[in-house]
Amino acid sequence: MSVAVITANPTPEFRAGGTDFSERRRSGVSQGMPIDISNTGDKTITWGADGAVQIGALTTIATIATDARIAAAYPGIAVSAQGLATPQVRHVATLGGNLAQRSRCWYFRRADIDCLKKSGSTCPARTGNHLYGVAFDLGDCVALHPSTMAAALLAYDAKITTDRRSRLTIAELLGDGSVANADHTLAAGEMIESIALPAPLEGERASYKRAISRTHAEWPLVELCARIVIAGGRFQLVRLAAGGVAPVPLRLAAVEVQLAGKVADAASIAEAAKSASSGAKPLPMTAYKLDLLQGLVRDVLERLSI
Ligand SMILES: Cc1cc2nc3c(=O)[nH]c(=O)nc-3n(C[C@H](O)[C@H](O)[C@H](O)COP(=O)(O)OP(=O)(O)OC[C@H]3O[C@@H](n4cnc5c(N)ncnc54)[C@H](O)[C@@H]3O)c2cc1C
Ligand code: SF4
């Protein structure tokens, strides 16, 4: 295992709520000059005439979790925010910081251990303990993406605007998971300004659920945000975005395709849920996540549909 190298001129880093940043400062993993944006960034929630919303990047997770209009229009976003971390963390953590937070991999978070996400050339988790790692092995780094809100926003086709780029998809913001040394595509000093959601669809229902090893104050093992529209007893729209399984949040396209136009009943859902692990490449310790993923798909879709 290689030892971490201290960078001579570390890159400056934004501090929003500070719940991720401060912990990496304390451990010595982050050494760049802090730029405090907690009081300068956009905290507004703006509704369009068509019912679409734009959320300022400095809006707290607690605000999103408790806003009645967001809960009515975008229940998958509201429930995701309600399930995240602890009340104390949600009170200060921001939506922009949640999207840009760094990996929770315990090797990455140790200042005395190097890895591909720092200046190293190997991934100690791949050969070491990766119990909480990816089940879709898409690149050299086997850490999953930690953002609950990114998965929810993926399910809603959200667009992110920074001070340099407009209307990025979640995939454009976070990449495809193949680049080991990054958790997102933001350039040094590029700031997320706002997140826009399209207007809700007529008759849309949505929800979120996580499989977790303790009831609160923990990242999920696997999480799922689901949106559906049912008309005439059949699925007109199914959108499923999973977190906790890959280096980026994943759309479960195989399940979505299988359910399109199908009768919205337990049998169709049970059959389609088996496809949730389509394309998975689990590590020696992470195959258990595929059972959790299939179970979540089945559970959330049944609750929403039947
Ligand atoms: C016990 C516990 C459980 C948790 N569980 C979960 C969970 O289940 N799901 C989950 O998603 N998270 C979880 N978290 C993490 C928490 O949600 C994040 O730390 C928080 O959302 C980060 O937001 P922040 O505003 O505090 O960001 P900060 O800590 O201020 O910043 C995080 C990173 O984002 C960058 N950044 C911040 N704002 C911007 C911006 N506007 N533009 C560009 N870069 C920016 C910073 O430079 C920094 O690198 C948990 C945390 C704890 C302590
Ligand atoms: S999984 Fe990624 S973050 Fe963790 S040790 Fe490997 S390269 Fe580093």
Question: Could you describe the 3D structure shown?
Answer:
This protein is an alpha+beta fold. The chain is globular, with a radius of gyration of 19 Å. The protein has a domain at 204-305: Enolase-like, domain 1, CATH 3.30.390. The protein has helices at 21-27, 61-66, 68-73, 75-82, 87-92, 95-100, 124-127, 148-155, 170-174, 253-259, 266-273, 288-305, and strands at 13-15, 34-36, 45-47, 53-56, 159-162, 192-197, 205-211, 222-231, 234-243, 250-251. The strands form 3 sheets. It has a 4-stranded antiparallel sheet. Strands 7-8-9-10 form a 4-stranded antiparallel sheet, sandwiched between helices. A two-stranded parallel ribbon has the order 1-2. Helix 4 packs antiparallel against helix 8, helix 10 packs antiparallel against helix 11 (266-273) and helix 11 runs antiparallel to helix 12 (288-305). The model is unreliable at 1-8 (pLDDT under 50). The chain binds flavin-adenine dinucleotide and iron/sulfur cluster.
Give a summary of the structure in a few sentences.
The chain is an alpha+beta fold and 306 residues long.
Helix/strand structural class: alpha+beta
The averaged pLDDT comes out at: 95
Beta strand % = 15-25%
Main sheet overview: 4 strands, antiparallel
Topology pattern, helix = H, strand = E: EHEEEHHHHHHHEHEEEEEHHH
